[in-house]
Amino acid sequence: MQMTIDEFWQEFKSRHPEVTTDHYDAYPFGYEDADELAHLVAIGQKTATTSALGLYEPDEARPFVGEYNIILDSHDQPVCVTQTKVVEEMPFDHVTAEHAYHEGEGDRTLAYWRRVHREVFTQEYQNESDEPFNEQIPCLCEVFERVD
Question: What CATH number has the domain bearing residue 53?
Fold first, then answer.
């Protein structure tokens, strides 16, 4: 039987009585590769992510240190819980090789990270913004830890 996101959160809290908040975010990573990326988080290989700051809505919540996140698969089913440890804003072309490595995807190099994120962000900017993608767009780089 599959659990709802709220049931998954309540079960997580029952195993972690130190967690006193009811605030969490729930989302899949990526699009067609959500299952693979959720798996990388579940096994501890993916411990970072990057989003394009310019694509957030003005009133949309931004990630913050201490936030809990439920990582979903491609069917919006909960896979695991993470907690955000670091959030840094920086231009796309300043993202480091270390951050790319911690994103845990492909060969974990900065070249791979740039190629994939350039493709994704270019598409997202075309679909969601009047501005085109460029290498100086502000990015939110998050580091997280799988906690369950």
Answer: 3.10.400.10
pLDDT tens digits for 49-63?
A: 999 999 999 999 999
Distances (CA, A) of 125 to 63, 96, 122, 136: 20, 22, 5, 13
Question: What's the total number of domains in the chain?
Answer: 1
| pLDDT(140) > 90 | yes
Instruction: Give the pLDDT band of residue 1 (cuts 50, 70, 90).
Output: low
Strand partners, 91: 138
For residue 139, give Cα distances in angstroms to 76, 87, 126. 25, 10, 17
Residue 128, domain extent: 5-146
Q: d(Cα 29, Cα 46) in Å, to the nearest integer?
A: 11
- Token code pair at residue 119: 């493709």
